[in-house]
UniProtKB/TrEMBL annotation:
The keyword DNA damage applies. InterPro entries: GADD45 (IPR024824), Ribosomal_eL30-like_sf (IPR029064), Ribosomal_eL8/eL30/eS12/Gad45 (IPR004038). It is found in: Nucleus. Keywords: Cell cycle, DNA damage, Growth arrest, Nucleus, Phosphoprotein. Residues 21-100 form the Ribosomal protein eL8/eL30/eS12/Gadd45 domain. It comes from the Eukaryota. This is Growth arrest and DNA damage-inducible protein GADD45 alpha.
Amino acid sequence: MTFEETGGENSVERMESVAQALEEVLSSALPQGCITVGVYEAAKSLNVDPDNVVLCLLATDDEEDVALQIHFTLIQAFCCENDINILRVGNMRRLAEILGGVKPGGEPMDVHCVLVTNPQSALWKNPALSKVNRFCRDCRCLDQWVPLINLPDR
């Protein structure tokens, strides 16, 4: 049973609200340099300082890449072990738009894995992040350890 199946109409509104909160989190963390993008970059960051990571996003558009699925499994296990909230994100194109779309030099970003980290100032209290974290906690109570959020097109 997924989170959507337990709450009916109220749940659809909540999913949309959480998707909007996720966009706010990413938009506010990006200018502060609190975003790590890419599977390998995320793995390195998790290895160096897992206590600094507050959210892990795994994005896929139903790809059948076995190597990517193995990376996702390992990252999920690491995040669960270190109490890092994880979200599966649908609509990779929208996620790339939110994050700026391309790396310096014009090459496209690998948005399959995105980490949100705490800024150096521990004063960063983001209500949108609290909403996303609460959603993740509620989903875990329903044994849905990696809930799926679909980012709406704009």
